[in-house]
Amino acid sequence: MNSENIIKELNFKAIRSSGAGGQHVNKTSSKIELTFDLENSESLNDNEKEILKNKLSSKLTKDNSLILFCEETRSQHRNKEIAIKRFLELIKTNLIRPKKRRKTKPSKASVKKGIENNKRTSLKKILRKKPKLD
């Protein structure tokens, strides 16, 4: 995955933001909408696209586009930087494959210790019982 090529494929749209800013908020478009077309991306290979489709299925639109919004600051440029940073982090974390789990056996010492512990508990409970009068 080449992050520089992916950034070139991103589309940005500036929208009027809600929230603090007074009358200024009605005049400027500081909210950023970042869209990434996963289906037609040239910087990701087919294997990476499939992994991202599966992992990000809840965040993708019907045409396999990823949309992120950022309206944290009153600066359009800062919001754009934050959106790019979030996007790259999202892609990187979802492309990481978890390590395959290897089955392990308990050691002989731990098995022996467990058996001894069970015997000790069993003896303790046997000694609690009332004696039989036969």
UniProtKB/TrEMBL annotation:
Protein name: Aminoacyl-tRNA hydrolase
Listed Basic residues bias regions: 121-134
InterPro entries for this protein: Pep_chain_release_fac_I, Pep_chain_release_fac_I_sf
GO terms assigned for molecular function: peptidyl-tRNA hydrolase activity; ribosome binding; translation release factor activity
Keywords: Hydrolase
Chain segments carrying region Disordered: 98-134
Protein family: Belongs to the prokaryotic/mitochondrial release factor family.
Keyword Hydrolase: yes
GO BP annotations listed: rescue of stalled ribosome
Record PANTHER family: PEPTIDYL-TRNA HYDROLASE ARFB
NCBIfam families attached to this UniProt entry: PRK09256.1
PROSITE patterns: RF_PROK_I
EC number: 3.1.1.29
Location of the Prokaryotic-type class I peptide chain release factors domain: 16-32
Species of provenance: Polaribacter pectinis
